[in-house]
Design goal:
Helix content is 18%, strand content 33%. The radius of gyration is 22 Å and the shape is elongated. Strand 3 and strand 4 form a beta hairpin. It is α+β, with helices and mostly antiparallel strands. The strands form two sheets. Strands 1, 2, 3, 4, 5 and 6 form a six-stranded mixed β-sheet that branches. Strands 7-8 form a two-stranded antiparallel sheet. It has two domains: 142 residues, Phage minor tail protein U (Alpha-Beta Plaits); 34 residues, no CATH class. The longest helix has 16 residues. It starts with 21 loop residues before the first helix and ends in a 13-residue tail after the last strand.
Length: 196
Amino acid sequence: MATNEETLNSSAYVLGVTKEKLIQSLFKVFYNRIVNNVTDPHSPTRSKWWYPAFPDVNLDNSEAYPIGVINSPEISWDKFTLTKKTATATINVEVYVTKQKQLDELADAIINAVETSSGIFRNIQIRFTNLDDTSTDHTIRDKITIHSKIMSFTCTFNFTTTIGTAVGLSRNAKLLNSNAYITGIQHITSEAQITL
């Protein structure tokens, strides 16, 4: 992932989401959709205000705002079927501004960018994209008031599980394709461990 002082290439095309690079590819998809569709409402040509982590900038200078942070997703797994799991991701998008009106404008634009991307998400197997929660806060730094909002989005991605290697399977065990579905197991030694 990029350091906290640089932005990512928002025009990078993500071919899809895979379980091998689930966190990275989900992050890139959300980053691209938001950065390409949400501009600074008061300086539309300003491009360096979206970051993959909170930037190391002078926060006491009102010229540094708005600041947008798209965080890396948090992932959890649940069983979906005998051979599949569902990864549920939570992606937090943070916005920091000096005017409350800007905060609402940007939040609406971010929510709209994610919602209108649902067809693109479905095409790459990202399902059930939802705005789960928002929270608003403010703080005073030096002589400026900083308003912030966090938008928490959730989505799911189903993938085929990998079955571990088993020692001492009977001759009736069949291994089919690279996903290693196992049927007809009659005997497994104590060394075997299969996770579904």
